[in-house]
Amino acid sequence: MIKDYLRLIRVPQWIKNTFIFVPLLFSLNLFEFSFLSKTIAGFFIFCLTSSIVYVINDISDIEADRSHPFKKNRPLAAGRISLKSAYIVVAVLAVPVIISLLFFNYKFGILLFAYLLLNIFYSMSFKHIVILDIFSIAAGFMIRVVSGAYIINVEISYWLILTTMFISLFLASMKRHSELRLLIADQNTATRKVLSEYSTYLTGQISTVAASAVVICYALYTVSQRTVTIFGDERLIYTTPFVVFGIFRYMYLVYMNDEGENTTQMMIKDIPMIVTVSLYVITSVLIIYHLL
């Protein structure tokens, strides 16, 4: 039962909330305990909030999930957890989230509420509207990054916000591409209604544009006058190859290996991707904090 409840709240998906650490890393406060502790606390609050969203989404999609080849094994769709228990889980998760808002500034609370509201609208409507569905996903990631800045009360570069938007658009369009490939391979597979508005060509084009924008925005961030002035170093540009390789590796896994429907599983299981992300973080820390 415990395993089923952990699957219900999607613990592996919490990795997406690490975007909240982006402002901390690039604000030169990574090793400041007060800033780090606040960000970690904010991270867990976002994790609980995102779990609330996942449970609500499963409640909303319970019938559709029962017809899906993979989602039918989810605890709620499979009947291992009742609807009543799912509602109780939402209530239990909401309590620490509400209480925690007393210890954060009001801007973080507003963004947290905006994130919850966005995802409720996504579950109810936006995910059925072509293009708006992937932009809703991108907005969720942008809210995470801006929230990370509000938690520690620092400014964040607009180039980083744009980079976040485009990388989340890239991941969302790749996910739609994978779902379309699955639908083509098995015509009897039940999938999202919005997929009828997409094609593999369209998702491929969106992915290409988004991937290009990620590289351009990130490269411009690393060489912008504000970045160079704050860090007192021009070498952050050398982290760009890791970003490019990560993008290309992800495209390879989706286009050549038919992966991509589960972004989180891909990120935590693909060794080259794990190595790339690790090297990027290590190199960035060494350069930004003048340890290299």
Chain-wise SSE layout:
Blueprint lengths: L1 H7 L13 H5 L6 H28 L1 H4 L17 H18 L5 H19 L7 H20 L6 H28 L14 H24 L1 H7 L8 H18 L5 H7 L1 H18 L4
Helix pairs in contact: 3-5, 3-6, 3-7, 6-7, 7-8, 8-9, 9-11, 11-13
Task: Please give a quick description of this structure.
This protein has 292 residues and is mostly helical. The protein has helices at 2-8, 22-26, 33-60, 62-65, 83-100, 106-124, 132-151, 158-185, 200-223, 225-231, 240-257, 263-269, 271-288.
Task: Give a quick set of tags describing it.
292 residues, mainly alpha, Tetracycline Repressor, domain 2, 0% strand, globular
What does this structure look like?
The chain is mostly helical and 292 residues long. The chain has two domains: 1-153, UbiA prenyltransferase (Tetracycline Repressor, domain 2); 157-292. Helix content is 70%, strand content 0%. The protein has 13 helices and no strands. α7 (132-151) packs antiparallel against α8. The radius of gyration is 19 Å and the shape is globular. It starts with a helix and ends with a helix. The mean pLDDT is 89.
Which series of helices and strands comes N to C? HHHHHHHHHHHHH
The residue fraction in helices comes out at: 55-70%
Portion of residues in beta strands equals: under 5%
What integer value in Å does the Rg equal? Answer: 19 Å
CATH architecture of the largest domain: Orthogonal Bundle
Number of strand elements: 0
State the CATH superfamily name of the largest domain.
Answer: UbiA prenyltransferase
Number of structural units classed as domains: 2
Total helical elements: 13
The secondary-structure class comes to: mainly alpha
Unreliable residue stretches: none
- Major sheet details: none
User: So what's the CATH class of the largest domain?
Assistant: Mainly Alpha
- Alpha carbon gap, first and last residue: 48 Å
